[in-house]
Every structure is written in structure tokens, then in C-alpha cells.
Amino acid sequence: MCSHLNLVLASKKVLIVYAHQSSGSFNSAAKDAAVEVLTAKGCTVEVSDLYAMKFKATATSEDITGKKQRKLTEADLVIFQFPMYWFTVPAIMKGWMDRVLTLGFAFTHEKRYSQGIFKDKKAMLSFTTGSQESMFSANGINGDMNVTLWPLQNGILHYCGFQVLAPQIFWAPSHGYQLKPEVHEKHAAKEFGLTVGIHLGKALPPNNQMKAGV
């Protein structure tokens, strides 16, 4: 995640909307790493731990108009950290989007997309998948990840005006596969590592993440 965060160092106030049940999860570690890196860079970081908060996902006639929206109003950057469930965010995070990104606060019929209310804010998805990267390719069995991300990145975030940064994707971390020795040896003398997650102790490769959908 560090390469992505280095792109947004001017963002001094960061809100991390975090959705995972376990403090021992990969997502929890990714969230903690983001907090550590951003804080070290001088950012003020606030975490909304949705499960710990027992956040109510269902929308009601008395929807949120206070604290949760204040956090978002004050943030320059919003990071959504989550495991991808059924090709989208967990229900509790979708509930946050439904209840916080409300009409009149996050968008109006006149203020959407490039003219959106949050056009001066940045947003980024950071998530784990249950499938390998090849399965989310244009000819993979799950289909193109850019298509999968379109409703989230364009239909929600950019709709509200956010400048959407390229996503940070942790491909199937629970599977625990490691590089073959010959692959590791092949890249041992190269300047950069392979990816953000597999950097072999070297500098992160530039421009290695997929382009954002918007």
C-alpha cells in the first residue's frame, strides 16, 4: 500500500472505513500498515471500524446526519479497506455507503461526477480477494476486475465527485502460495520487486497497479 499512499501525502486528513470481523486478518494488518505509514508522513488518520462499532447497515427514515458525515466532511482522503464479498463490498460497508452518502449531503441532482460535492476529495479501494489475479482478467472465469469495480468506483465514489485513485488489491492472500525458487532467483538481481505485495525486499515497481476505472 505504501506506493499508493505516497501519491497522496498532501492529503493531511485521512478517514479509513474498515470492514472485517477479525483483528488477526490480513485486512486488519493492511489497515494498521496504512495508519502507521500515513501517521509517519504527518497525516491525521481516523478509522471507522464498522464491525467494532456494530454499525447498522439498513437504511432508516432517521439516517445519519451527524458524526459519520462529519468525519467524511473533514477528510481529504477516504480509504475503504475490506475483503471482497460476492464481487462487492461487505454488507456492513454497503450500509455505510447507503446511510452516509445521502442525497443532499454527498450529491444532488445538479452536483454529480466531475461537478460532485466531493470533487476536492480522494478515495481509494483497498481489498483482498478470494480468487487469484488471473481469474479476474479479461478472459478469466470471474471476468475483468475493471468491470467488477465499475459500480463501486464510478457508480458510487465518482458519482459523489471523489477523485478515485487506483485500487490496492491483495490477490487471494489466504491461499498462501509463494514464489517458486527459480522465480525468486530470476528477479534477485533486478532493481524492483515484482508487485506491491511481492517486492522481494526491493523498491516497489513503479506504475504496477491497474488503472482506476474512472
TrEMBL record:
Gene3D superfamilies linked to this entry: 3.40.50.360
Entries under Pfam families matching the protein: Flavodoxin_2 (PF02525)
Occurrences of domain Flavodoxin-like fold (ranges): 12-174
GO molecular function annotations of the record: NAD(P)H dehydrogenase (quinone) activity
InterPro entries on file: Flavodoxin_fold (IPR003680), Flavoprotein-like_sf (IPR029039), NAD(P)H_dehydrogenase_qn (IPR051545)
Leader sequence segment: none
Lineage top rank: taxon: Eukaryota
Sorted UniProt keywords: Oxidoreductase
Gene Ontology terms: cellular component: cytosol
Record has Chaperone as a keyword: no
Family designation: Belongs to the NAD(P)H dehydrogenase (quinone) family.
This protein's name: Flavodoxin-like fold domain-containing protein
Lineage: Eukaryota, Metazoa, Chordata, Craniata, Vertebrata
